[in-house]
Amino acid sequence: MRIVIRTSKLASWSRRLGSIALPIFVLSIIMHRSQSITSETFHLLISIAFIIAFFALITSLIALVQLWFSGDKGWARAFSGLALAIICLSPLAYASTQAQKYPDVSDVSTNPELNLTLIQNTSNKQKAKTTLDQRELLTYFPNIVARNYQISGEELYNLALEQISQSKWQIINSQTLSDNNETAQINAIDTTLFGWRDEIAILIIENEFGSSIAMRSASKLAKNDLGKNGKRIETFLVNLDAAVIKYSSSILGSESPPTPLEPKN
């Protein structure tokens, strides 16, 4: 008697669904980063990819259980569908963990009272959200404190430009220091991995002791930035601290460590 070994239909379907979800997932990111589609269209496409990937995940898991008991063919197809589903859904899982870890904000500043001007994030439809007191925000991002440096405003401005270049941000506006203006401001755009364009505003103020720097980073559409803006400011300022110390050591022959400005109550 010949025993017929069948191929699991669920295993085949899991791979088909995964093979549909992954191209939608990847192409929507590529098009969003290149600004070929709007953020609203991207949200729709990525949601479709997530839904299809979710069904691929469930289908592959059921198929694996059935294959274990039935002895049918289709293990490779089921595992392929599972792998494709996990690739598509992993950003969603990561976002969920970050949303639990960081506060529900999308606009972070070292000096909220300065109200640093943003150029592209001024839409009334999606107003950037800030819900935490500055001292409470520092419990999540302890390094987002404005700095005082014992160097001139022009020197600090040039060092900030170097850090912006290394961060691969796109400068969209810059106002330099002048005899009639003791402040300089730089506005830049940071394009995230998924193509969202967050804006950063940097204010440099020259004073009798040297110069100080303040920063603001905001997401245009997101209501919860998953900690991105706070981490962006922290990384920039920590790198700037190192650059100022290196510059001061080479030019002045002594280190000039930054002096944090205490946040107001």
How much strand content do the residues show?
A: 15-25%
Order of helices and strands: HHHEHEHEEEEHE
Counting copies of identical and different chains, the oligomeric state is: single chain
- CATH-assigned fold name of the largest domain: Alpha-D-Glucose-1,6-Bisphosphate, Chain A, domain 4
Chain-averaged pLDDT: 88
Major beta sheet, specifics?
A: 7 strands, antiparallel
Architecture overview:
The chain is an alpha+beta fold and about 260 residues long. The chain folds into 2 domains: about 10-100; about 105-260, Alpha-D-Glucose-1,6-Bisphosphate, Chain A, domain 4 (2-Layer Sandwich). The protein has helices spanning about 10-35, 40-70, 75-100, 135-140, 155-165, 230-250; strands spanning about 105-110, 145-150, 170-175, 185-190, 195-205, 210-220, 260. Strands 1, 2, 3, 4, 5, 6 and 7 form a 7-stranded antiparallel β-sheet that branches. Strand 5 (about 195-205) and strand 6 form a beta hairpin. Helix 1 packs antiparallel against helix 2, helix 2 (about 40-70) packs across helix 3 and helix 5 packs across helix 6 (about 230-250). The longest helix is centred in the first third of the chain and has 32 residues, at about 40-70.
